[in-house]
Structures are given as structure tokens and as C-alpha cells.
Write a structure and sequence with these properties.
By secondary structure, the chain is an alpha+beta fold. Its main location: cytoplasm.
């Protein structure tokens, strides 16, 4: 794989099919659970901790699947989908660095929700700051992240943890 510093939706869909990092390695979820339309910046350095950074976006349209069911008469993007997108990006970063294994979210520290994504919004922006990457018996990425809608921060998460596993049979 050629390491790029940005990725289109088509390239992210290729990753969701397991065609980017090789068989059995990091993979993004397929639509509808793919919560990212593009990665506008990814690096091995930079970010708040100097250990890597990812900036990605999701275009919002009123016909997105979750608005029809969460909540009827009061449509809002579930906060857990924004949190999941941040885990997706940490796992993508591990695969992008060349680490092997299937990604699994392993938790987070403090998560705060102080805003919402409504159908009238235009764009969600995710920003991930890599704090630490370990490659021992387990490959682990730890990061802090934030979610903004139309330029206003609405969620934050500290200590996002994603691991890569060569076997998930006993997970």
C-alpha cells in the first residue's frame, strides 16, 4: 500500500472491503456504519502530542439513515456514531502505519457530548490526536478526539483505545 496523506470516499470504501491493508488487517466498516466520507489529513507526526493526527469529514444530508429512526419527530445523529467514527479513525491510523491485525475498539476515557448533529447541518469534522502507539503482544493505539459540526465542537473523547488482533477467536 502506498501511504497517502489524504483519502477519498472511494478509497475508504476499498478499505471497508479489506482491499487496502491486506487480508486479515485493519478494515473500516461498510456503509451504513462507515461514518467517514473522506480523510483530509493523516500524518505520523503532528497533532497535540506530536505522534500523529487525523482529520476526516462526513457530509450531512437530511436523508441519512439514522435521522429516520433516531428519534421519530426529533431527528438527531446518535452520539455513539460520532464516537464510533473516532475509533474507526484510530484503527485506520494503525493500519496506515503498517501494523497487522483486525481492529477492535477497546474503550475510552472521558467522553463528553455538548452539542448535536441535526439534519440541517452540512458537515461533521473529526479530529484525532494520537497519544501513543504500542506494538508488542498487542498493537494498541491511544488517542484523544473531537467531533465538530459546521465548525463548532460538539463531542470530545479522551483515551480512545483501539487494538489490532491477529486472531479474534477468543476476543
Amino acid at each position: 500500500m502506498t501511504q497517502q496523506n489524504a483519502y477519498t470516499r472511494e478509497e475508504l470504501l476499498k478499505c471497508s472491503r479489506g482491499e487496502m491493508f491486506g487480508p486479515g488487517n485493519a478494515q473500516l466498516p461498510a456503509p451504513n456504519m462507515l461514518m467517514i466520507d473522506r480523510i483530509t489529513h493523516i500524518s505520523e507526526t503532528g497533532g497535540k502530542y506530536g505522534k500523529g493526527e487525523i482529520v476526516a469529514e462526513l457530509d450531512i444530508t437530511p436523508d441519512l439513515w439514522f435521522f429516520g429512526c433516531h428519534f421519530e419527530g426529533d431527528p438527531v445523529m446518535p452520539g455513539c456514531l460520532g464516537l464510533d467514527a473516532m475509533w474507526q479513525l484510530v484503527g485506520f491510523h494503525l493500519g496506515w502505519l503498517g501494523y497487522q491485525g483486525r481492529g477492535r475498539a477497546l474503550g475510552s476515557g472521558e467522553v463528553k457530548f455538548f452539542g448535536q448533529v441535526l439534519p440541517i447541518a452540512k458537515k461533521v469534522t473529526y479530529t484525532i490526536h494520537i497519544k501513543r502507539t504500542m506494538n508488542r503482544a498487542l498493537t494498541l493505539g491511544i488517542a484523544d478526539g473531537s467531533v465538530a459540526v459546521d465548525g463548532r465542537e460538539i463531542y470530545s473523547a479522551e483515551g480512545l483505545r483501539v487494538g489490532l488482533f491477529t486472531s479474534t477467536d477468543s476476543f
